[in-house]
């Protein structure tokens, strides 16, 4: 364990599995105290316990981040344990529900209006609520890092993901505006745009960890859209992402703010 982040207290949302889990483990490995948030308490507990068993500092913080009261309570309780939060990773997110037949997400005109709020509330409002809750202490101490995990769909738009693209694009714009408002407070705000990610939380399909181009035709076709994926024979994994988050959380990135950085194997190059 190194100590690059020994003075950091990090809140990671959606940290119970996948990308959030890997980010939490890496931040803890670098010395940060980690507040492990997820909607499901058993996931929080498992990740927090794993960090502690490996000599790190962590607490489980189950909460629904679409509820401002729950977010504020979570932050207040965490601060009693570790002090003020100076790293926020807005990772929690959700894509539209897939249709029963065909396994595809719906086009905008086919997506029920009631489903819009599910996507917007977690992806966008969850990030706004968490940022609102931690910013006052960051401003007070003139010390803060906010890192938004978005999608390449938020930068270029993606068919059958219109509302999701809108929410992720809004987070990126929100981050840029926040960076302009709080640069004077020594707070940096950046976004990291992901493409397809394979992780343990995916039950089946082309992004299941056991899927390969040889045993999954959908994955084989997907690789054609990712220049690096064609060479590596796979899409991204959580560990491809967590290292950049640790860098952005550290003082090594002190003069980087208002940026959107892609980790998608070249899916987009903008």
Written description of the protein model:
This protein is of the alpha/beta class and 270 residues long. It folds into two domains: 216 residues, 3-Layer(aba) Sandwich (Rossmann fold), CATH 3.40.50; 34 residues, no CATH class. The protein is built from nine helices and seven strands; from the N terminus they run βαβαβαβαβααβαααβ. It has a seven-stranded parallel beta sheet, with helices on both faces. The mean pLDDT is 94.
In a nutshell, what does this entry contain?
With 270 residues, this protein is an alpha/beta fold.
Walk me through the topology.
Elements: E1 9-12, H1 18-29, E2 33-38, H2 41-53, E3 57-62, H3 68-82, E4 87-90, H4 113-141, E5 144-151, H5 153-156, H6 162-182, E6 187-194, H7 217-222, H8 227-232, H9 238-249, E7 260-263
Parallel strand pairs: 1-2, 1-4, 2-3, 4-5, 5-6, 6-7
Attribute tags:
alpha/beta, 2 domains, 15% strand, Rossmann fold
Number of strands: 7
Annotated CATH homologous superfamily of the largest domain: NAD(P)-binding Rossmann-like Domain
Q: Which stretches are poorly predicted, pLDDT < 50 over at least 5 residues?
A: none
What is the CA-based Rg, rounded? Answer: 18 Å
